[in-house]
TrEMBL record:
<dbReference type="Pfam" id="PF00581">
    <property type="entry name" value="Rhodanese"/>
</dbReference>
<dbReference type="InterPro" id="IPR015424">
    <property type="entry name" value="PyrdxlP-dep_Trfase"/>
</dbReference>
<dbReference type="GO" id="GO:0031071">
    <property type="term" value="F:cysteine desulfurase activity"/>
</dbReference>
<keyword id="KW-0411">Iron-sulfur</keyword>
<protein>
    <recommendedName>
        <fullName>cysteine desulfurase</fullName>
        <ecNumber>2.8.1.7</ecNumber>
    </recommendedName>
</protein>
<dbReference type="InterPro" id="IPR036866">
    <property type="entry name" value="RibonucZ/Hydroxyglut_hydro"/>
</dbReference>
<dbReference type="InterPro" id="IPR001763">
    <property type="entry name" value="Rhodanese-like_dom"/>
</dbReference>
<dbReference type="GO" id="GO:0008483">
    <property type="term" value="F:transaminase activity"/>
</dbReference>
<dbReference type="InterPro" id="IPR015421">
    <property type="entry name" value="PyrdxlP-dep_Trfase_major"/>
</dbReference>
<dbReference type="InterPro" id="IPR000192">
    <property type="entry name" value="Aminotrans_V_dom"/>
</dbReference>
<keyword id="KW-0479">Metal-binding</keyword>
<dbReference type="InterPro" id="IPR036873">
    <property type="entry name" value="Rhodanese-like_dom_sf"/>
</dbReference>
<dbReference type="InterPro" id="IPR015422">
    <property type="entry name" value="PyrdxlP-dep_Trfase_small"/>
</dbReference>
<dbReference type="InterPro" id="IPR020578">
    <property type="entry name" value="Aminotrans_V_PyrdxlP_BS"/>
</dbReference>
<comment type="similarity">
    <text>Belongs to the class-V pyridoxal-phosphate-dependent aminotransferase family. NifS/IscS subfamily.</text>
</comment>
<feature type="domain" description="Rhodanese">
    <location>
        <begin position="615"/>
        <end position="701"/>
    </location>
</feature>
<keyword id="KW-0032">Aminotransferase</keyword>
Length: 701
């Protein structure tokens, strides 16, 4: 068997995503292992092995009551917070239905609540035929619930759901104030408080409150996944979600998850031990937060915090950096072995934060939010290492021109030739001549204007043109974007809208082009031609000497897809670059527009053989991560490694499709998604010995 290539040891990981989940503490893992191996009995059995298991179960419940300050009421072990939320909701709504007159009543929940809550309310409201109306309680810019709104609505509510600490921002609600408002208007309304992010971060004395239901989850505080518990206030409505067996005093049937409960047992012991030094005091956690925030502000001078520190627990920082998408920050942090997230881990595919939207923050902050969270068991050494790596990651972003420094740094960007930028399925193209420091923009996208402007400023480019394949006027979005992009680098002698006035009208037409062109524009030593005027296409030549006839290597065709028309302007070898690319084709060939198959089949090899490929000097490893990711974690392999982000794949195809056609190539990235795209594209363009590393760099660690 081939030994996997090592990239970074797991011990080098800095995990700062504890609001999503936490690592299991060694003593908790040991308790789980011991229970599985030695105390494996069924707690319902009457023999000694069963009685030993029963002791762990009962003692864990007793310790749990001490931790949350609940000597009365029920403490029911569950599979986690989601089950606890479901149980609380079905209990409250079943009781409300028994009481009658539910139609037109409110089901209130905080606008920044975890999605498990409103979705559970909607589900059971429909399933039970309650016919109540869900209503989100607004929050202010600090994420605090609108008490006036609650006061005016809660009397007509069947249930109200709030949370103790928000999972995205760490904002902590004032529970005594909430209780005063709620009970002042509705003494009997069912009140659930999501306490998942509160455990271990503050004092809880639930029996001294009128909170009816409080779900908790073990994996948010160094326990395993699949275990949690639910507090239910004494004499409040309860309907079992799972029935059939009578376990948990008939409140939750099914054989108890004893290893998970043993984990909670050890966790509760730690929380109650005044002498323990595993969980740090609040003062230490606040110091950690100050150190991390100082490092972040130094690394990202334009950083904006998305929550006020005075209203937040000290273990969470949620921030945005103007002009830098959260994806770019997360990717470079991940490459630096720092684990963070954008908002809720349960919403990883969402491009903006509904929590920050509810707080009324600007769109750019919602779309660029990054959450950094650590746990109360975090050590000082982790914080020190994190601060150092945050600065290294920011340096990589500056060298990739995603951040513009206020110093005199002049980074030598590797960008040269045709660069494809994307926003969703829409494509924008940059034509860059690195030596001449010249750039042209084709089909600018509003969401990318600031990024392009930073690149122009960072590299001191002179912008030769900002053009579009759509009809353009001085009031069109592309024209306005031209003014933004050109602010620091355009030719002052021309009108910045559309095809430049100084484009040569009499330059020689490209070889093989049978349609008229409207002059040409020099970008370095390449010529850019325009064909048509209402919805033009643009043809780009290869680098040429003066007076030499150009060949068309790239065609920027907008939404034009008629092969018979394009065939008059381009050759079979021309790379066709469209405005829309929903299937990540990156570019197309004329034959493909005619539905003709071309290229090679993608090589499908086993992971063991891929590892073998990586150990051969003749293999070319194409690292399709972004430049900043590659810089933070360069790959040291026996094979040759080159950095070719997807943004530069078009130029790579143009440069190497002849000399690399038969060379063994392995594409790789962080997760395997981008490398799969790259490998498929390369095979279509005639690279006939291409594979990609399924699972990405995770398989190399």
């Amino acid at each position: 068997m081939v030994t996997p290539v090592q990239i970074r040891p797991k011990a080098d990981e800095i995990y700062l995503d504890c609001n999503a989940t936490t690592p299991v503490l060694p003593q908790i893992a040991q308790a789980v292992s011991h229970t599985m191996e030695q105390v494996f009995g069924n707690p319902s059995s009457s023999h000694i092995t069963g009685l030993q298991a029963r002791y762990i179960l009962d003692n864990a419940r007793r310790l749990g009551r001490e931790v949350i300050g609940a000597p009365r009421g029920h403490l029911v072990f569950t599979s986690g917070a989601t089950e606890g939320i479901q149980t609380a909701v079905v209990s409250a709504l079943s009781y409300a239905k028994q009481q009658g007159a539910t139609k037109g009543k409110w089901l209130l929940y905080g606008a920044t609540e975890h999605k498990a809550v409103p979705q559970a309310l909607a589900h059971w409201n429909t399933l039970l035929g309650i016919e109540a109306e869900l209503k989100a309680i607004p929050v202010d810019k600090n994420g605090l619930l609108d008490l006036d709104f609650i006061e005016s609505h809660v009397a007509d509510a069947l249930m109200i759901c709030t949370m103790a600490v928000n999972n995205e921002t760490g904002v902590r609600q004032d529970l005594p104030k909430l209780e005063q408002v709620i009970r002042g208007q509705a003494p009997q309304v069912s009140w659930m408080v999501d306490c998942v992010q509160m455990l271990g971060k503050g004092d809880l004395q639930l029996a001294q409150t009128t909170i009816d239901y409080a779900p908790f989850s073990g994996h948010k505080l160094y326990g395993p996944k699949g275990i949690g518990f639910l507090y239910v206030r004494e004499l409040r409505p309860f309907t079992p979600l799972i029935i059939g067996g009578g376990q948990e005093q008939g409140l939750r049937s099914g054989t108890e998850n004893l290893p998970g409960i043993a984990a909670l047992h050890t966790l509760f012991e730690l929380l109650l031990d005044r002498e323990q030094q595993v969980f740090k005091p609040v003062s230490t956690l606040q110091s950690y937060r100050e150190q991390l925030l100082a490092a972040l502000r130094e690394a990202f001078p334009s950083l904006e915090l998305n929550h006020a520190l005075e209203y937040s627990v000290p273990t969470t920082l949620n921030f945005s950096v103007r002009g830098v998408p959260s994806r770019d920050i997360m990717d470079v942090f991940d490459a630096a072995n720092i684990r963070v997230s954008s908002g809720s881990a349960c919403s990883s595919k969402v491009t903006r934060s509904f929590v920050l939207d509810a707080m009324g923050l600007a769109d750019w902050r919602s779309q660029s939010a990054v959450r950094l969270s650590f746990g109360p068991a975090t050590e000082q050494a982790v914080i020190d290492a994190a601060c150092k790596r945050i600065k290294e990651a920011a340096l990589a972003l500056r060298q990739s021109c995603l951040l513009v420094s206020d110093t005199n740094e002049d980074f030598d960007s590797e960008l040269d030739g045709v660069v494809q930028l994307r926003f969703d399925a829409q494509c924008c193209y940059l034509i860059i001549d690195r030596q001449a420091r010249e750039l042209a923009v084709i089909d600018p996208i509003p969401q990318l204007a600031e990024r392009i402007e930073k690149l122009v400023e960072c590299q001191h480019y002179r912008v030769k043109a900002v053009v579009t394949t759509e009809q353009q006027t001085k009031q069109s979005p592309a024209a306005m974007l031209a003014q933004i992009i050109c602010a620091s680098g355009c030719d002052a002698e021309r009108d910045n809208v559309g095809w430049p006035l100084h484009a040569q009208a009499d330059c020689q037409a490209p070889y093989g082009c049978e349609v008229p062109t409207t002059g040409c524009l020099l970008v370095g030593n390449r010529r850019l031609y325009r064909v048509g005027s209402r919805q033009p296409i643009y043809l780009l030549s290869s680098p040429i000497a003066p007076e030499q006839q150009a060949h068309v290597d790239f065609a920027f065709i907008g939404e034009q897809a008629a092969p018979e028309l394009l065939a008059q302007a381009v050759s079979e070898q021309t790379l066709l670059c469209g405005k829309w690319d929903e299937n990540f084709a990156i570019a197309e060939q004329l034959a493909e527009l005619n539905n003709e198959s071309c290229g090679c089949e993608l090589v499908d090899i086993a992971p063991e053989e891929q590892q073998s490929w990586l150990s051969r000097p003749e293999t070319l490893v194409v690292d399709v991560r972004e430049q900043q990711e590659h810089q933070v974690t360069p790959l040291e392999l026996p094979a040759q490694v080159i950095s070719v982000p997807l943004t530069r794949l078009i130029q790579f195809i143009y440069d190497h499709r002849e000399d690399y056609a038969q060379r063994p190539i392995v594409c790789l990235c962080r997760s395997g998604h981008r490398s799969a795209v790259a490998a498929k594209v390369l095979s279509r363009f005639g690279f006939c010995n291409v594979s990609h590393l399924s699972g990405g760099l995770t398989l190399l660690s």
